[in-house]
Amino acid sequence: MRIDVHAHYWTDSYLDLVAELGNSDTGTQRGIGAGGGAELDARLTLMDRAGVGVQVLSAAPQMPYGSDPHRARAAARFVNDQYAELVTRHPDRFRAFAATPMPHVDESISELARALDELGMAGLVMNTTVLGQALVDPRFEPIFAELDRRQAVLYLHPAGNSACTPLIEGFSLTWMVGAPVEDTISTMQLITRGIPSRYPNIKIINSHLGGALPMLLQRADDQYSWEYPDTPELPSEAARRMWYDTVGHGHVPALRCAVESFGADRLLLGTDFPYEAGDVFVRAVDYISASGIPADQAEAILERNAMELLRMGSSQSS
């Protein structure tokens, strides 16, 4: 059973709430295949074509983040309830990561508890930054502490903010370049601030093969001691405490680099649906088996790693 951990789902009613919170980018998410009704039927057909049994859905990057805690909490509850209802209707095809009303920590911990304990969601999704603030900002430490206490999965996705630099946004590179840059920065911040070692029970999944991280591990090992000497362990060791999805747009050299850098046991199938749809969606799945890595490693990436990480029984099937 192939398990896709990087897939998006939004309804227009949820995007309306996100727009009210101040997100100006909801228009590009509408009508692209990520909604319900006929779009959901088409998604299921495409999943069958690619042999994907289950998708783990997330609202990122359209997250219920905003300065108004009441509106943010209402939006988070809305989308989590939508996801839970969808999973109830299609229990063999979908699971979901919960969204929380960041940057409001108390409200987020409360909604996390509801989503995990009452709605049975698979873990938490967060953007790599929260309204421009790094996840490793000290005020967010209670979130990590609660996730660690729960031994929960934390899935991270770029916010689409061009890493807060006009050198990316001003040159129309927000997603081509900016997204993997966000992944790289976020993952290295987690490493240098010791999140994987201080909260070892959190199962952190980073998007897009970790951005440029597979190519930077030795560089980080060589340079951390003078640039950020408080890093508690070798960056390469910390990196291998986390997981990474395989969204690499079918680029086999990038996948092979990630396998050699992190180990195949740290990779999980991701498709980035609906941004990779149709033949491109099928390629996002098939390129793993066609990459030339050993068959047992491909099988682990496509199925076994996610089943173990998300505690999915072998009885669940498509």
Explain this structure to me?
This protein has 318 residues and is an alpha/beta fold. It has a single domain (2-309), classed as Metal-dependent hydrolases (TIM Barrel, Alpha-Beta Barrel). Helices cover 48% and strands 13% of the residues. It has helices at residues 12-20, 38-50, 69-89, 105-118, 141-150, 166-169, 174-192, 195-198, 213-227, 235-239, 252-262, 278-289, 295-309, and strands at residues 2-8, 52-58, 94-98, 123-127, 129-130, 133-134, 153-157, 203-206, 243-245, 267-268. The chain has an eight-stranded parallel sheet with strand order 1-2-3-4-7-8-9-10. Residues 314-318 have low confidence and may be disordered.
Give a summary of the structure in a few sentences.
It contains 13 helices and ten strands. The longest helix has 21 residues, at 69-89.
Top keywords for this entry?
8-stranded parallel β-sheet, 13% strand, 318 residues, 10 strands, two-stranded antiparallel sheet, alpha/beta, globular
Tell me the radius of gyration.
18 Å
Can you write the helix and strand succession as a string? EHHEHEHEEEHEHHHEHHEHEHH
Beta content: 5-15%
The first-level CATH class name:
Alpha Beta
Strand order of the largest sheet: 1-2-3-4-7-8-9-10
Number of domains: 1
Helix content: 40-55%
Q: Can you summarize the main beta sheet?
A: 8 strands, parallel
Please report the total strand number as a whole number. 10
- Morphology: globular
Low-confidence stretches: 314-318
CATH superfamily: Metal-dependent hydrolases
What is the first-to-last residue Cα distance? 7 Å
CATH topology: TIM Barrel
Number of helices: 13
| Mean pLDDT across all amino acids | 95
